[in-house]
Design brief:
Blueprint (H helix, E strand, L loop, with lengths): L1 H25 L6 H19 L2 H6 L5 H22 L2 H17 L3 H22 L3 H19 L5 H11 L8 H14 L2 H10 L1
């Protein structure tokens, strides 16, 4: 039991480190020392909030796929953001690999992974240029292929049944207003509405 808790905590902490560096990249800074101190403070606040979330405590008390999936997702987000800055093949490759692993671990991560990819690709390249970027196709292929093989081309059908039962059959909830009300209630219990509202205002 303790070994499992150590693994879960380690996964969450690695995700926290990736989030720290992502926050530092996202908060623009220059050579001014005061600006650098502000950037460091923001990154530390973001990381501290992530580490003391009630869910992070709950998830570290047993061995579940969620901390592992979150770790890969945050690593993916960092690499995807670095790709948007540099548009290099190495960051595109890492982003695709990390995002693909996150979706493979837990298929519902596809919504987060896909949403982040669409937002950053559109922001970086625009709608017209993205179709001509081979790096975008590489990222998309790496995001989709592992899960496609595991969930769809599963000989014993257990993985494909999971995909059908938890993704396809429940996709109609996306059009149900009460679903979003329940989601907000869940978010309230998980992290509090103040953080969600602050995040939306920040965006």
């Amino acid at each position: 039991v303790w070994i499992a808790r150590i693994y879960s905590s380690l996964f969450w902490i690695i995700g926290g480190l990736a989030l720290f560096f992502l926050a530092r990249r996202m908060v623009k800074y220059d050579q001014d020392q005061a600006s650098n101190n502000l950037t460091l403070s923001v990154a530390l606040v973001v990381t501290a909030y992530y580490l003391i979330l009630p869910f992070s405590v709950q998830a570290s008390r047993s061995f579940q796929p969620d901390p592992f999936m979150v770790m890969w997702f945050v690593l993916y987000a960092f690499c995807l953001y670095r790709w948007s800055e540099t548009q290099s093949w190495s960051w595109a490759l890492l982003a695709g690999l990390f995002g693909g692993v996150a979706v493979l671990i837990k298929i519902v991560a596809a919504y987060l992974v896909g949403g982040a990819a669409i937002a950053l690709v559109l922001h970086t390249l625009g709608f017209k240029r993205l179709w001509r970027s081979l790096q975008v196709y590489l990222i998309a292929a790496l995001l989709i292929t592992p899960s496609l093989i595991f969930y769809v081309v599963d000989r014993e059908a257990r993985a494909s049944d999971y995909f059908t039962g938890w993704i396809l059959q429940l996709s109609n909830l996306l059009l149900d207003p009460s679903f979003y009300v329940r989601c907000l209630s869940f978010v309230q219990n998980l992290m509090g509405m103040a953080a969600l509202i602050a995040a939306l205002l920040g965006v």
